[in-house]
Amino acid sequence: MAQHNLGTVLSFEFIRTVTKGRFWIGTLSVPLIIAVVFGLIFLSNTSTDTAAAAQKSAQFSISYTDASGLITAEDAALFSATAADSPDAGITAVQSGTVDAFFDYPTQPESTPVRVYGADRGLFENGKYAAVAQAMLTHAVEQRIGSPQLSALAAGRVQIETVTYDGTEESGGLGSVIPPMVFLVIFYGLIVLLAGQMLNSTLEEKENRVTEMILTTLKPTTLIAGKVIALFGIGLVQMIVFLSPVLIGRLFFPEELSLTALDVPPLILDPVRMTVGLLILVGGFALFTTTLVAIGAVMPTAKEAGNFMGVMMALIFVPFYAVALVVSDPQSVIVQIFTYFPFSAPVTALLRNAFGSLGLLEAGIVIAILFTGAAVMLRLAVRLFQYGSISYTSKVNVRTALRAGSRHPAEGPPTTGS
Amino acid sequence: MDEARVHISGFRMDFGDTTVVRDLSFDVHAGETFGFLGSNGSGKTTTIRALLGIYEPTAGILHINGRDFKPEHGDRLGYLPEERGLYKKEKVIDIMTYFGRLKGMGRRTARQWSLEYLARVALADRATAVLDKLSSGQQQKVQLGVTIMNNPELLILDEPTKGFDPVNRRLLMDIIAEQKQGGATVVMVTHQMEEVERLCDRVILLKDGTAEAYGTIDEVQNKYGGRIIRIRHTGAIPPSPHYEAVLEETNYSELSLTDATDEAVILKDLIDAGVTVRSFTTTKISLEDIFIRVYGDQNVPAAAGTFSTAPAPARDGA
Ligand SMILES: Nc1ncnc2c1ncn2[C@@H]1O[C@H](COP(=O)(O)OP(=O)(O)O)[C@@H](O)[C@H]1O
Ligand SMILES: [Mg+2]
Asked: Last residue of a domain, which of B170, B190, B217?
């Protein structure tokens, strides 16, 4: 009976949401914005100017080998690059720290990727290696422009593969940050779009006086659990919609949208980080959903609940203000607090996980905190709804609603007698 | 005991420092229709909510079918709350099907039943309309439909006539009568005393947080003297230990008999006292009279309306 009711609540809540126009307007606007942003990146990307790249060249030492014979000594001198004896010697020099970067130009750079090796200078800096390697080649080619083969090269259609080293250890770089970072983006997308609905999911019963009918028809746990699971399903639908432009893009414009065209290095999927990311996403989503549902159960109207929303939203955005710290100094006290405080934990931990600074033990603790928190909040939400939501007009006295054993109904204005 | 659908004993309910129900005990037997009466604010809704587990009682036992009510027990309950409402933004048929499913009906059965019900209450064309596009009276009918889905064995109706026009009130009463015929136990809060007299087997009158009267309608009437004498007359009505004047106008009075004295004796006393009697009728005291007698000294809010203190139309015979 309870099982069957859970399914009934689930499908009712899910269907009535996804059949509303309002839902689709909100949901579809996100991929639209993503598509616009992608377009802008694509446009600005095709006009990378060499001046900016040349500026960067001043900041690091370069050695190179050139099997194509395109780069002259003058070209190299312009970038203060010195020729290495062999690719192996060049890589060893990077690993030992003698030079910052080594560029390995292949015989046919128009079809074979240029391999770039650099000392790991962190996510935002590492991109400079590829930019300078590209600039150096472009510059050399511009000197000889005239043949069609060279024009193609001058137009910038060169593949570059960057490998960075932390000492002799190969480090992941952007390619390993992006995939687990997707969980953070999804988390934000879901919370921003669904928070209002989470809050309103029990408010509706209260504002429309459905509570008494509901409470005498099914267990409040079934109702709340059904609503939470429905929200998960709705979140899943939105996630698929959000990712649709990427999927459509990959299917129909594989050339234009290939990741190298966007200067994005090959993606590295680390199974541990992906699993941790997924668990934090699910745990964080569950915690936020149950918390917002609990708040909804206490507040008499959507308006008053809105004030609380602000606080919740601040908590998910605040770790972003400290993003530099989260990335550069994950062990600092403030980052530790953000990591373990349940409501800032999802964002902080997802960031750290993406940058690889979240240890397995830490990840385990955060995931445990999130799931435990969600379970506690679910119970709280159920109790608040069961014993509080009948006060249609006033705020539920949380302590009264929770008082064990001899709990009393919340004090409030009387029921409206006829 | 085994026949008690509802069993309440020693029920007490405090809200903070205020005691709303002091000490209330009564049973509702299986198959009977029970009137739960009391002035506004006397604690009827509170009692029902405590019985249904929405409020936690301060003290006392409130049982349905011998145990605390829990929705998961699967007792077939039909509850029409005083505070009504359904999902406003959903289609009528979807709402009804949803509740039907929650009450244990199959999807197809619930849909079919709902369509038939809507046709019966003249809402067939509104089945796929969104609820808040319906008038409030139409919404009441939908709510009543939801209440009686899946053949409830216990119907609890808190002021069911609220919001119904006279035509739909008749429809409502027909539906309640049908449910009763079908074997349902009905507990009804209402201020429509004539309907109580017509439908209810037994009643309870709640006053000051406890039962003022409890029993069959006959028993309750007898408790208040049982008989009332309506007279048209000239001359003042003298006081007497046999009756109490519940209404005294210049030429019309209602006397409630307080003991078993024969009506003929009263008539003779009046004539002896010099009163000219033009008409003299004995009737059983109506519930409305009892209601006014019990609560008349309280400040009944003007909104109460349904039980005005104007003289009841003279009714002849019992
Ligand atoms: N949740 C509540 N908090 C405080 N007082 C309440 C609450 N519910 C009802 N009351 C009080 O209890 C009394 C009885 O109310 P109620 O049971 O609705 O009366 P009735 O249904 O008989 O008209 C009223 O005085 C009302 O103010
Ligand atoms: Mg009431």
From this structure: B217
pLDDT one-digit tens code per residue, B13-57: 998 888 999 999 999 999 999 999 998 889 999 999 999 988 889
Residues of A in contact with B303 (CB under 8 A): 418
Indicate which residue's Cα is closest to atom 8 of ligand 1.
A414
Same domain, B142 and B281: no
Domain covering A56-154, topology: D-Maltodextrin-Binding Protein; domain 2 (3.40.190)
* One domain, residues B251 and B191: no
Q: Which of B20, B27, B22 is nearest to B10 (CA)?
A: B22
Residue A205 φ then ψ, to 5°: -60, -40
B307 lies in some domain: no
Model pTM score: 0.72
Smallest CA–CA distance, residue A417 to chain B, in Å, is 6
Say which DSSP state A159 is in: -
Nearest ligand (C-alpha, residue B295): 1
Residue B171, domain extent: 4-217
Q: Is residue B313 part of a domain?
A: no
User: A–B: how many Cβ contacts below 8 A?
Assistant: 100
Tell me the C-alpha distance between A160 and A108, whole Å: 12
Ligand closest to CA B46: 1
B160 CB near ligand 1 (under 6 Å) = no
As annotated, the residues of chain A forming the CATH 3.40.190 domain(s) are 56-154
- Pair B208, B257 in one domain: no
- Kindly state if the Cβ of A233 falls inside 6 Å of ligand 1: no
Of the candidates A117, A125, A131, A123, which has an alpha carbon nearest to the alpha carbon of residue A165? A117
Q: Which helix (H) or strand (E) holds A193?
A: helix A174-207
Does some domain include residue B252?
yes
Check if B22 has its Cβ closer than 6 Å to any atom of ligand 1. Answer: no
- B250: Cα separation from own chain's centroid: 34
Report the nearest atom of ligand 1 relative to the CA of B55.
Answer: 1
Put simply, the answer to whether B104 touches A1 (Cβ < 8 Å) is yes
Query: pLDDT tens-digit profile of A189-241?
Result: 888 778 878 888 787 887 778 888 988 999 888 998 899 899 889 988 888 88
Q: CA B311 → CA B235, B252, B288, B314, distances in Å? A: 19, 10, 10, 8
Which CATH number characterizes residue B126's domain?
3.40.50.300
pLDDT digits (tens, 9 = 90+) for A109-150: 878 888 888 887 765 566 778 778 887 887 787 777 655 566
Assess whether the C-beta atom of A412 lies below 6 angstroms from ligand 1: yes
CB-side neighbour CA atoms (13 Å) of A69 = 0
Question: How far A379 CA sits from the closest chain B CA (Å)?
Answer: 17
Which residues of B fall within a CB distance of 8 Å from A209? 81, 83-85
Span from the CA of A385 to the centroid of ligand 1 (angstroms): 19
Query: What ipTM was reported for this prediction?
Result: 0.77
What residues of A are in contact with residue B12 (Cβ under 8 Å)?
none
* Best of B83, B93, B142, B154 to mutate (most A CBs within 10 Å, chain A): B83
How many independent structural domains does chain B possess?
2
Clarify whether residues B161 and B261 are in a common domain: no
- What's the CA gap between A134 and A132, in Å, rounded? 5
B101, A11 contact by CB (below 8 A)? no
Chain A residue numbers with beta carbons less than 8 Å from the beta carbon of B146 are: 213
Is residue B192 within 8 A of residue B306, CB to CB? The reply is yes
Q: Which ligand is nearest to the CA of A415?
A: 1
